[in-house]
Amino acid sequence: MIYKQAKTFGQLPSDLLGFEHAWVRWQFDNAVFHFGSRVDNKLNQYDENGKPKYTPEQALNLLPKPVKLADFINRRGARVKVVPHSEKQAE
């Protein structure tokens, strides 16, 4: 993880990858800092029994989340009414 490597060596992530453009360097360094800090904070949280609260996958937000098709469409401005299959047959 570039975040850990940059912290360990005391360098900016953009230095490790050799970015030259100042704006790109700044954007990349900020993105790595915010993402890395968030993941690091989650990995350092423990429950009352001393066990980690999050797995690395959970901390990285890599686990798939179930999404209902109607909710997905509704978030984009359209309105969808979900009719159960049994009601469709009754019509």
Note down, in words, how this protein is organized:
This protein is 56% helix and 0% strand. It contains 6 helices and no strands. It is flat, with a radius of gyration of 22 Å. The chain is mainly α and 91 residues long. It has one domain (2-90).
- How many domains? The number is 1
So what's the overall shape?
flat
Mean pLDDT, as a whole number?
Answer: 83
Order of helices and strands: HHHHHH
- Radius of gyration based on Cα positions: 22 Å
Strand content: under 5%
Task: Kindly state the percentage of residues in helix.
Answer: 55-70%
Individual helix count: 6
Separation, N- and C-terminal Cα atoms: 56 Å
Q: What is the total tally of β strands?
A: 0
Largest sheet descriptor: none
What structural class do helix, strand and pairing data support? Answer: mainly alpha
pLDDT < 50 stretches: none
